[in-house]
């Protein structure tokens, strides 16, 4: 699933988002220029909670 992370603006943000997802057992592909992250292997609630804990608000992107 793809999530919008509007306050992800730099390389440090990208690394923080990747680390937050990996800490809860998922795999993240971060698209900094689009401010989106694609996550595999985790339920939506886990992704949103992990990113919130890292300081990032996230919402699912409708496909």
TrEMBL record:
Superkingdom: Bacteria
CDD domains named among the record's database cross-references: HMA (cd00371)
PROSITE patterns cross-referenced by the UniProt entry: HMA_2
HMA domain ranges (all copies): 1-59
Protein name per its UniProtKB record: HMA domain-containing protein
């Amino acid at each position: 699933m793809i999530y919008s992370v509007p306050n992800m603006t730099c390389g440090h943000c990208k690394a923080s988002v990747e680390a937050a997802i990996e800490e809860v057992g998922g795999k993240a592909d971060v698209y900094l220029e689009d401010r989106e992250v694609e996550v595999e292997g985790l339920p939506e609630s886990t992704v949103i909670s992990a990113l919130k804990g890292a300081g990032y608000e996230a919402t699912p992107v409708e496909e």
